[in-house]
């Protein structure tokens, strides 16, 4: 598989949010503001890239029977780096994302890529796969966050966008609104994909 295909696979063909429906917990929980979506997406991308790279580098020395605990140690190392960095340099974002940064350790996107790709491929393709999947996740969660923030608060990245008399749809920033907006986005993505395939 060519590196370009490996990269675009995570953004389009196997987008973790819109295609594989992985990482739904943070996607629905923190996507109430665009800045949260970008922050969570970039944090997850960092962990994906470096955990994929190191798992691939160590794939020949990690025994098959203990690969899952080994994956957890590698992933937890990079999650800790991200968590402490965000707490140190972006305390407001750290407070917004809360427990969902440490929970990247058990994010099924990270585990899926470690098991399905990084453990079976050389370092460069593994790194590119992590980058593609991370960017795909970041784009998806940011899009969902922008829509929910716009409809729920009338703002994007905290900047007032909609007209002054707009009455925010508060349900959009709550859990039911997250499910509704994600469902609508999934329907739109599937419709576009089917249209492209039938063209």
Overview of the structural elements:
- This protein is mainly alpha-helical and 199 residues long.
- The protein contains eight helices and two strands, in the order H-H-H-H-H-H-H-E-E-H.
- Largest sheet, spatial ordering of strands: 1-2
- Mean pLDDT over the residues: 93
The total strand number stands at 2
Assembly type of the chains comes to: single chain
Largest sheet: 2 strands, antiparallel
Bin the helical content: 55-70%
> Strand-residue fraction?
under 5%
Low-confidence region ranges: none
Report the C-alpha radius of gyration, rounded. Answer: 18 Å
* H and E order: HHHHHHHEEH
Tally of individual helices: 8
Shape: globular
Q: Structural class of the secondary elements?
A: mainly alpha
Give the termini separation: 25 Å
Looking at this protein, list some descriptive labels.
single chain; 199 residues; mainly alpha; two-stranded antiparallel sheet; 8 helices; 68% helix; 2% strand; globular
